[in-house]
Design brief:
The protein is built from 23 helices and 23 strands. The protein has about 675 residues and is an alpha/beta fold. It folds into 4 domains: about 160 residues, Rossmann fold (3-Layer(aba) Sandwich), CATH 3.40.50; about 110 residues, Translation factors (Elongation Factor Tu (Ef-tu), domain 3, Beta Barrel); about 130 residues, NADPH-cytochrome p450 Reductase, Chain A, domain 3; about 150 residues, Rossmann fold (3-Layer(aba) Sandwich), CATH 3.40.50. Helix 6 links the parallel strand 1 and strand 2. Helix 13 packs across helix 14 and helix 22 crosses helix 23. The longest helix has about 40 residues. GO terms for molecular function: flavin adenine dinucleotide binding; FMN binding; NADPH-hemoprotein reductase activity.
């Protein structure tokens, strides 16, 4: 810089030395500039080449693949189908109903296919009229607080935003819900209403199944009226074909590489041996149980606290989320099924879909053994649905037993009554039915085809990730009861978890799990007061909430009032987390601890009674403190009674009529100030 600046100081002075210096400087500058330009050109040339080359293959792949795959219209045309049955399913029941409806179609000279809305482009609904005698049926379950199931979320979003003309679409909807929940069958009702708004033609009225009553009977009643309506609309008649149609064919593997055989994995083969994130429903993480302790001091029940190690899993969770675990069936039940059917359970087999165009190649991961299928993949403890009994009836060699099975699977009032009393109320699972019908000995492969999938079980997480980032805590009670037939029935997941032994190598301490996000969240501002109501194991998420509020307080944050209403049977029997709650209260994090012991006195006392007792304080927190209310536990009685108590408090102290008080509480829910995490 100095050399270049010097000549400008006095342009009249020039010497041979300075001229030579200038010449050498210019030549250096020339070399520098030429090098710079060459370097930039070279860099640009190669950089440009990279930019052109790298995206080439992905571009071609992404454009070419989905056109055929996600068009259900193209698939229906290709396979000669005219009825498509979409399902929004969280636990597999809606999918099961969809499969049953699609199989029904052949009895009316029609051809159906069940379809997961997540796998297809639903905007194609406007094109369904291109297919003769076509219609779409929707079996839609409602999940949580009126939400769509995970696999129907995209469909729900599309319906909300769509301005498509569906005037050529014929449709019907069957909803699956539970009347104990606030938003009964919200998803089924919404789909039915929205499709009509978009111009679609309803062929048959909306069906509303209630899992709190008898969902199976609701479905059968709707179905037996649905098909005549379809026949009338299309001018077709029942063909009279009532024969059993197998969906899968059995292939027995006599000489198979055992490294290619599934041993309980949910998705990718060997995923339990070679774990790779991200972890979800199809790729669960194998978490080690590091603690499993009994929480209650007495009584017949077994209440437990488990801790799952999620170190190195990259799993993140928030207080209020749910942990899903994949349990295994009791080996003694599996062995008894094998013995009664005279089967070698270690036979390796595959069940292959006879419809080669179907996206679902197998009913569960194949190839696998019968033992693995009955242990990890199939539900053998719940009472089987009527379609299973219908299909099995053909294998009963005793005429009386065959007639009984067919009757229970029929839509006749007498048959429905028999199914309700002999199967549902007696809680007969498939093993009990086989034991009580000695002539019924179906082929095990057909039984495996018919049984529904064993589902993941969900638990409210009883810890805060702020305090326990590498660990997820569960609070659960083992389910065990005697049936009307004198059998002892045990809950699959809770009894399986009970036997998980910490610090042991092998599967005895491993739990396949993943985290499901929830809307059950602490207020954004730590200073906002919270009123938590959770009797029994409903206390689980509140242990996480209180841990988090304690952590926030330690960080110097201003934490609002933290109020807990907890209930159990007896103080010295099943008072869960007693020491922890006392410590939190002593530290000033838990500002109010109200505990109802329902059976420690002649008159039963529940959480709603304590809310009424403290009604002035409750109203003050709600009205002046803008408190958030959280309710966790039993939906059928507790949650409803608590909600009614809030109606009374709001009505009394807010000087409102009953309808106004109801509206006030409903608005709290809409604003996220009254949250529920309940089960029935």
């Amino acid at each position: 810089l100095t050399a270049m600046g010097e000549p400008s100081m006095d342009p009249t002075i020039s010497s041979p030395d300075s001229t030579a210096q200038q010449n050498s400087l210019f030549s250096m500058m020339d070399v520098f500039l030429i090098s710079l330009i060459t370097g930039l050109f070279t860099y640009w040339f190669f950089f440009r080449k990279k930019k052109e080359e790298v995206p080439e293959l992905p571009k071609m792949q992404s454009v070419a693949a989905p056109v055929r795959d996600n068009s259900f219209i193209e698939k229906m045309k290709k396979t000669g189908r005219n009825i498509v049955v979409f399902y929004g399913s969280q636990t597999g029941t809606a999918e099961e109903f969809a499969n049953r409806l699609s199989k029904d179609a052949h009895r009316y000279g029609l051809r159906g296919m069940a379809a997961d809305p997540e796998e297809y482009d639903l905007s194609d609904l406007s094109r369904l009229s291109e297919i003769d005698k076509s219609m779409a049926v929707f079996c839609m379950a409602t999940y949580g607080e009126g939400d769509p199931t995970d696999n129907a979320q995209d469909f729900y979003d599309w319906l909300q935003e769509a301005d498509a003309d569906l005037s050529g679409l014929r449709f019907a909807v069957f909803g699956l819900g539970n009347k104990t929940y606030e938003h009964f069958n919200a998803m089924g009702k919404y789909v039915d209403k929205r499709l009509e708004e978009l111009g679609a033609q309803r062929i048959f009225e909306l069906g509303l199944g209630d899992d709190d009553g008898n969902l199976e009977e609701d479905f059968i009643t709707w179905r037996e009226q649905f098909w005549p309506a379809v026949c009338e609309h299309f001018g077709v008649e029942a063909t009279g074909e009532e024969s059993s149609i197998r969906q899968y064919e059995l292939v027995v593997h006599t000489d198979v590489n055992m490294n290619k055989v599934y041993t309980g994995e949910m998705g990718r083969l060997k995923s339990y041996e070679n774990q790779k994130p991200p972890f979800d429903a199809k790729n669960p993480f194998l978490a080690q149980v590091t603690e499993n302790r009994k929480l209650n001091e007495g009584g017949e029940r077994h209440l437990m606290h488990l801790e799952l190690d999620i170190s190195n899993s990259k799993i993140r969770y928030e207080s209020g989320d749910h942990v899903a675990v994949y349990p295994a069936n009791d080996s003694s039940l599996v062995n008894q099924i094998g013995e009664i059917l005279g089967t070698d359970l270690d036979t390796v087999m595959s069940l292959n879909n006879l419809d080669e165009e179907s996206n679902k190649k197998h009913p569960f991961p194949c190839p696998t053994s019968y033992r693995t299928a009955l242990t990890y993949y199939l539900d053998i403890t719940n009472p089987p649905r009527t379609n299973v009994l219908y299909e099995l009836a053909q294998y009963a060699t005793d005429a009386g037993e065959q007639e009984r099975l067919r009757k229970m699977a029929s839509s006749a009032a007498e048959g429905k009554e028999l199914y309700l009393s002999w199967v549902v109320e007696a809680r007969r699972n498939i093993l009990a039915i086989l034991q009580d019908m000695p002539s019924l000995r179906p082929p095990i492969d057909h039984l495996c085809e018919l049984l529904p999938r064993l589902q993941a079980r969900y638990y409210s997480i009883a810890s805060s990730s702020k305090v326990h980032p590498n660990s997820i805590h569960i609070c659960a009670v083992t389910v065990e009861y005697e049936t009307k037939t004198g059998r002892l029935n045990k809950g699959v997941a809770t009894n399986w978890l009970k036997n998980k032994v910490p610090d042991q190598n092998g599967s005895s301490s491993l739990v396949p799990m993943y985290v499901r996000k929830s809307q059950f969240r602490l207020p954004f501002k730590p200073s906002t007061p919270v009123i938590m109501i959770g009797p029994g194991t409903g206390i689980a998420p509140f242990i996480g909430f209180i841990q988090e509020r304690a952590w926030l307080k330690q960080q110097g944050k201003e934490v609002g009032e933290t109020v807990l209403y907890y209930g159990c049977r007896r103080e010295h029997e099943d008072y869960l987390y007693r020491e922890e709650l006392a410590r939190f209260q002593k530290e000033g994090v838990l500002t109010q601890l109200n505990v109802a012991f329902s059976r420690d006195q002649a008159e039963k006392v529940y959480v709603q009674h304590l809310l009424k007792k403290n009604k002035e304080n409750v109203w003050k927190l709600l009205n002046e403190g803008m408190a958030h209310i959280y309710v966790c536990g039993d939906a059928r009685n507790m949650a409803r009674d608590v909600q009614n108590t809030f109606y009374e408090i709001v009505s009394e102290f807010g000087s409102m009529s009953q309808p106004q008080a109801v509206d006030y509480v409903k608005k709290l829910m809409t604003k996220g100030r009254y949250s529920l995490d309940v089960w029935s």
